[in-house]
Design a protein that fits this description.
4 helices, two-stranded antiparallel sheet, alpha+beta, six-stranded antiparallel sheet, single chain
Length: 277
């Protein structure tokens, strides 16, 4: 082989080897080895668990979570057993402290009521109840319809007014009540989360007027100020003007007295209240 050609080939091989080594070193420095994520075993729901249930050992399982853990996740089964469920859980879902009632508070609807609030049961019509439009967590407005007291047969008739707005629904279902003949019947009942003052208003309105719930967007928290609607307005009649009471002044009662002085006769008049003077 030509000596000159051999020298060129050897030089090219050496240069290629050096370039490969330099490239390898540069690439190896840039490569970052991904750290292995830490795996933690947490407590999860074994089956679907409805709101109000008391957790038992058979209701729990465990799953592994890689990386950061959700806030408030329960790591030990004994920290969940015996606590009430205040938000429905689903199979395979990690159980959080925020989804359970405090230890010792029991289960049922009472455990879901925050401090200072009340749960009021409201009967709703069959259309809303059967269709399932009202479910826990939704927001509703409460309308009441009736004849205002003191109208004395005013032509304005029945009036509908928005009583409460943006009220949270705790639960919805059926209740067994008796009709006028004493026979049991199913009634659609919705439990609303209200303040003590709102509970009094609902109790009074439920006994004296007809109550209806209307759904609203949960993201719509604005409180509207709708004017009350009367039956006469629906038929195109202007709203009846508000009557003002003007006291009627009556003429004072006057006593008339005849005075005899010998042969003279006269009359004297005394208004009521001056007869003692």
């Amino acid at each position: 082989m030509n000596r000159r050609l051999f020298t060129i080939l050897v030089s090219a091989f050496i240069i290629a080897a050096l370039c490969s080594f330099v490239v390898y070193r540069l690439v190896s420095r840039r490569m970052v080895v991904s750290p292995v994520a830490k795996v933690t075993r947490v407590v999860a729901a074994a089956t679907n668990i409805p709101l109000g249930s008391i957790l038992q050992s058979k209701d729990l399982s465990s799953i592994e979570i890689a990386g950061p853990l959700p806030n408030g996740v329960i790591l030990r089964p004994q920290d969940a057993v015996g606590r009430g469920v205040i938000s429905s859980l689903y199979a395979g879902e990690p159980i959080l402290n925020s989804r359970l009632a405090p230890p010792g508070s029991g289960g049922g609807l009472a455990a879901t009521i925050p401090t200072g609030m009340r749960a009021v049961a409201v009967r709703v019509d069959q259309i809303i109840g059967v269709a399932g439009f009202v479910t826990p967590g939704m927001r509703v407005d409460v309308l009441m319809s009736g004849t205002p007291p003191g109208t004395n047969g005013n032509a304005q008739g029945t009036v509908t007014k928005t009583l409460l707005q943006n009220i949270e629904v705790l639960s919805a279902g059926t209740d067994i009540q008796k009709d006028a003949e004493g026979k049991p019947k199913q009634v659609q009942v919705v439990n609303l989360l209200v303040t003590p003052e709102q509970a009094e208003q609902l109790s009074l309105a439920g006994n004296q007027t007809h109550i209806q719930l209307v759904l609203r967007n949960p993201l719509d928290t604005q409180i509207a100020k709708p004017a009350e609607t009367s039956l006469s307005q629906l038929f195109g009649q202007p709203p009846a003007p508000k009557r003002t009471y003007t006291p009627v002044r009556r003429a004072p009662t006057v006593y008339q007295v005849q005075v005899l002085n010998g042969s003279k006769q006269s009359e004297a008049k005394f208004p009521v209240g001056e007869e003692k003077q």
